[in-house]
Amino acid sequence: MDCRKVPFIIVTLFYLFISSSGEGRGDVSGSDIKYIDEAVQIVNTIFHNYKEIVPPRGFYPDPVYLGIHLNVLYVSDFDQVAQTLTSTVELEVTWNDTRLSWYPVGVYEITIPQDKVWSPNLSMNNAIGAPSLIDDQKYVIKHTGLLYMHKRMQLTTTCATNHTDDSAICEITVGSNLVNHEIIDFNEEQSSCDVSSNDVDHRIEVSLEGVEKRPTERPLLKANETYPEFACRMKVRLTGCCGSMKSSPANRKQENGAVVSQFYMFTLLVAFIISMLVIDSRI
Ligand SMILES: *[C@@H]1O[C@H](CO)[C@@H](O)[C@H](O)[C@H]1NC(C)=O
Ligand SMILES: *[C@@H]1O[C@H](CO)[C@@H](O)[C@H](O)[C@H]1NC(C)=O
Ligand SMILES: *[C@@H]1O[C@H](CO)[C@@H](O)[C@H](O)[C@H]1NC(C)=O
Ligand SMILES: *[C@@H]1O[C@H](CO)[C@@H](O)[C@H](O)[C@H]1NC(C)=O
Fold first, then answer.
1. Nearest Cα to 208, choosing from 191, 239, 233?
2. Any idea where the domains of the chain sit in the sequence?
3. Which DSSP symbol is given to 98?
4. Ligand 1 pocket: which of 62, 93, 146, 189 to mutate (most atoms <8 Å of CB)?
5. What is the pTM of this model?
């Protein structure tokens, strides 16, 4: 996304953060006022009559196509026994909502809080427990009506493993559980997964195995409909690096506990000996 590289100025406008690329106006210093006027006008215009619960199906009967990018930043744990993978991921989703486009003069994109726009209710389908958000979910609207959503989270996902095997294929899946493929679908050309293998723990080796788009079913919600799911498949292997004992935080706590209690026992023993000596010398 080259637009991220364009320097931009950020102006705070009560809850709205509005930014401009300053393109085509060599000098940005001049008119903040003009800039704010334009931004306010854009916000008033695009949100006039905008209903965030209505999906942007400008090309009906086509669904809303989503571009998905899942970036696996760090894998902190792979547990063969519990069959789980714990990772930190960045999820980026893009789609077009032509209701939110404008003709730019100086303001090329605006950043808005969640709840202001329609967004696909995607879930991390194989997460066990709620993912913990590291960053707030953020949205940027470009003047073309392209929406960009970003969120960074830590999550634990299921990963079927063979407890005797040091490696497994683990997936992180993103899917739509509420709206079916007639309403949203993943644009495969614009969807991808990245694994930052050099950032992961030395104990764990992770590489990208591939991505997959597949249908899932919710017969109770609607028979004969499919719900799209995007899977990022990774090969995960325990390297056996750095000592045979896997030092999970829980283990470390226990180790610390053991050290503390040994120290405590030793202190008690010393105190006991000293008191015996004192008593002895008094007698
Ligand atoms: C949004 O629209 C642009 C321009 O028509 C197109 O290139 C892009 O693929 C669309 N984005 C998605 C996610 O479909
Ligand atoms: C989508 O999910 C968010 C919370 O993740 C919720 O607040 C919102 O109401 C949901 N939207 C729909 C249409 O279900
Ligand atoms: C696990 O590995 C063992 C030994 O390689 C094999 O016999 C067994 O079928 C495997 N189980 C699964 C579920 O893959
Ligand atoms: C759904 O599919 C089943 C099996 O293919 C078929 O018997 C049934 O009539 C279908 N229902 C609808 C509403 O199309």
1. 233
2. 2-238, 256-283
3. G
4. 146
5. 0.74
